[in-house]
DNA sequence: CTCGCGCATTGATGTAGATCAAGAAAGCAA
DNA sequence: TTGCTTTCTTGATCTACATCAATGCGCGAG
């Protein structure tokens, strides 16, 4: 469980076909963690995109001492939105939503990572962007 | 925030095109809630599939008094899996995973709801099932 | 029983986005 | 600067799944 003080990190999985899927970005003040059970192997990888400073919490911590329970609720909310979005929106809609929600992140990571976060290929994202910029 | 004592409930959204998307099923001992912010309108609907008994917690409850914080962590884990799955798996893989994970629910709800949970159409689910039963 | 209605199945066709391949730009090291 | 690597773009084709439409199958109400 990492709390980002400065910098930018990402967490992602690699599926059976070897493809990376970005699960979330962690800019300043976000908490990034792999919430897997106590014994099961975690399925997320985490790495650093921009140097910075992290605060690490061991996952053995008893639940009662979770530093910021509100953050958990906010996280649930974000994930809920993400699921609804993955089920009901097109690539274009998802991208527009991402731009609105995380305008700063767009500047800070390569497009292929945004594509990966959105669940589409870099090619598809490129075309979406083109379509949007054409119709101003 | 509902805790299911007996019975079966579901939560779902309705998108702009009027389509329903089942967000989760709530069998015995599950907690179902819409984790939206304090003011924003909730986006989930909840209704009952099998009569039973619910325990209701008002959402104004301060975070510290959340009855079962472990449940929140488990929930995060389930949602994490769901997101990864929506991004990386085909309809068939998602269905197989669902069957393994919730074998009982399959018996209890109509297929169209399972399709909706998986993010596919009932027709597509029907074909997936046919394909699976053909190759034994 | 039988009528009606929601659910499941099946087929034909459409489409968003994936995949493959090849260039063009943009970093970045030396 | 030059060259090398990585990212972005563009086009052609392919495929999983959606959509539309028709048919069959329970099942509950009358």
CATH topology of the domain at 1-66 in chain A: Jelly Rolls
Q: pLDDT under 50 segments of chain A (min length 5)?
A: none
Count every helix of chain A, treating DSSP H or I runs of 4 or more residues as helices: 5
Note the gap between the termini of chain A: 41 Å
Give the overall shape of chain A, derived from the CA principal axes: globular
Number of extended strands of chain A:
4
Q: Over all CA atoms, what is the radius of gyration of chain A?
A: 16 Å
Mean model confidence by pLDDT of chain A:
84
Protein chain pair with the most extensive contact, residues per chain: A-B, 32 and 33 residues
The CATH class of the domain at 1-66 in chain A: Mainly Beta
Helix/strand order of chain A: EEEEHHHHH
* Name of the CATH superfamily of the domain at 1-66 in chain A: Jelly Rolls
Per CATH, the architecture of the domain at 1-66 in chain A is Sandwich
Give me the oligomer status.
homodimer
Percent of residues in beta strands of chain A: 25-35%
Helix content of chain A: 40-55%
Please tell me about this protein's structure.
With 136 residues, chain A is an alpha+beta fold. Chain A has a domain at 1-66: Sandwich (Jelly Rolls), CATH 2.60.120. Chain A contains five helices and four strands. In chain A, strands 1, 2, 3 and 4 form a four-stranded antiparallel sheet that branches. In chain A, helix 4 (111-118) crosses helix 5. Chain A is globular and about 50 Å long. The relative contact order of chain A is 0.16. The model of chain A has no long low-confidence stretch (mean pLDDT 84). Chain A binds a DNA duplex (30 and 30 nucleotides) through helix 5.
């Amino acid at each position: 469980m990492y709390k980002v003080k400065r910098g930018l990190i990402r967490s992602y999985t690699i599926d059976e076909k070897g493809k990376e899927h970005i699960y979330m970005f962690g800019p300043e003040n976000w908490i990034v963690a792999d919430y897997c059970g106590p014994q099961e192997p975690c399925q997320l990888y985490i790495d650093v995109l921009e140097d910075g400073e992290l605060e690490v919490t061991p996952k053995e911590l008893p639940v009662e001492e979770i530093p910021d329970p509100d953050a958990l609720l906010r996280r649930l909310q974000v994930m809920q939105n993400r699921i609804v979005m993955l089920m009901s929106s097109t690539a274009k809609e998802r991208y527009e939503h991402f731009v609105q929600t995380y305008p700063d992140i767009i500047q800070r990571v390569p497009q292929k990572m945004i594509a990966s976060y959105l669940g589409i290929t870099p090619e598809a994202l490129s075309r979406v962007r083109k379509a949007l910029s054409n119709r101003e």
